[in-house]
Amino acid sequence: MHHKYVVRDGGAVWTGSTNWTADSWTREENVILTAESRELAGRFSEDFEQLWTKREVERSGKVDTAPLRVGETSVRAWFCPGRGERLAHRIAKAIGTATRRVRIASPVISSGPILGTLAQAASDGKVDLAGVVDRTQVLEVIRQWQQNGNAPWKEPLLRTALTRAPFSGKHSTPYAPGRVHDYMHAKVTVTDDVVFLGSFNLSHSGEQNAENVLEIADAALADRLAGFVDGIRGRYPGVDL
C-alpha cells in the first residue's frame, strides 16, 4: 500500500511522493501536488473506498481514467494495481513520442515497457533526455535481478538508459532498521508539456502496488518540474553502476 494522498471534504486532493515521516520532510527529495476539484476528489474517493471495503490491494485501483478538467487544465488520474499495466504503457508511449524533452526523477526504474523505451530513446539521442535516480536503490535492484534470475534482460536496458543519457544518482543510505531514510524519493516524469507525478516508482512492483499518478497537460507546470528535476540532477554525480 504505497499511496500518499488526502481527500478533503470531497472537493480537494493532496497527493505526491511524500511519506509522512520526519525523514521524508527533511532528508529526501519529494513532490507534492494539491488540486481543488470535486470530480478529481471523487476519483480518489472511489479508490479509497475500494481499499477500505475490499481490504485487498489487488482488488483496488479500478477507477475511471478519462480526462477531467481542473480549471483550464486536462488531468487524468491513474490508480494501481487496477490500471497499473496501462499506466506503465502510457508513460512509455509518452516518452517514446516526445519530440523535445524528457525529464525523469524516480528512485528506481524497472518497468519493462518504460525501460525498453528509455533505452531506445537514450540510444537514439534524438530527444533531450535526462534524469535522476537513487543509485543505492538501483544497485539493490540489480543485485536482486542477478540473484533471482527472473529478469536478466532488464539489466542491459537499465544500464543503457542510465549511462547513454545524463542521469545522476544519489548515494543514499542503504535501508536497515534504525537508519535514516535519505533517498531520492521524487516520482516525476516530464514528456514535452505533460507531467506524470504521484506515488508510482517507474517499477514493475509499482504496477502491482496501491499507487496513484496524475497525468497533467500543462506547459507551465512541465517547465517548473523539468527545472526541479534538473536541480536535483545538479546536486549528485553521474550514475556509476
Describe the structure.
There is one protein chain. With 241 residues, this protein is an alpha+beta fold. It has one domain: Endonuclease Chain A (Endonuclease, Chain A, 2-Layer Sandwich), CATH 3.30.870. 39% of the residues lie in helices and 24% in strands. It has an eight-stranded mixed β-sheet with strand order 4-5-11-10-9-6-7-8, with helices on both faces. The protein has a three-stranded antiparallel β-sheet with strand order 1-2-3, with helices on one face. Helix 3 runs parallel beside helix 4 and helix 4 crosses helix 6. The longest helix has 17 residues. It is globular. The model has no long low-confidence stretch (mean pLDDT 96).
Task: Write a brief caption for the model.
By secondary structure, the chain is α+β, with helices and mostly antiparallel strands. It has one domain (5-233): Endonuclease Chain A (Endonuclease, Chain A).
